[in-house]
Specification:
Layout lengths: L1 H11 L14 H4 L4 H21 L4 H16 L2 H14 L4 H9 L5 H23 L4 H18 L20 H19 L3 H23 L4 H19 L3
Amino acid sequence: MLSAFRLSFSFLTRFPLPSPKSFENADFPKSFIFFPLVGAVVGALLSSFAFLLLHAGAGEMLTSFLLLTALVLITGGIHIDGVADSVDGFFGADNRGERLRIMKEPAVGSFGMTAIALLLIGKFAGFYMVLESGAVQPIIVAMVLSRWGMAAVGFRAVYPRADGTGKLFIGKLSPESFAASSAIAFFFVYLLLGNIAAVYILLAAVLVLLVRKLSERKIGGITGDLLGATNELLELSLLITLGFL
């Protein structure tokens, strides 16, 4: 289990944590258990950074930009690439095989570049809305539920390729591990939001379901790119909606 814990941080962040020289195949799906915990750590760092910046007189606009920059640095922007690949594949071809081929290519097309631009602008707006509401705790909620979303979208999903890194994660998560991941995520959300937590958990679940349905129709399952795209979609949506608190 310690290996799975380390793997979750290695996969989702650029923290210089010591890690085993190799992981067992079983560690990959088990690492989903700790995805919400990684989100809580990332969110706590960002919210603390925001608190310090605001009290130093940085203002909401500059703080939002610096938070977005910090988020990209902490995560390495790895999931942003998943958004670009998914959008390029989904909207750049008209059959399943060609979509999967496009998604695997390292080059980013016009659809993907546009999606990245809109995503970053949207997250900037989301951070700004949260900060303007006078609270920083919602940032943690967004980070937690977006990481839980990756576990949810990969749970009992079909991996549509013959091979690939995603094959080690997707569809391999046990019900017990998914329940543990959900318990960690929901604990943090209820702790921070109280009675309205259910609204945002439901929103995250609906978005996960929409990604699942669209992906199954477009490519016949969930790929590693779709894990990252789910994270980014939930981050964006939750930051914006939490800004109305």
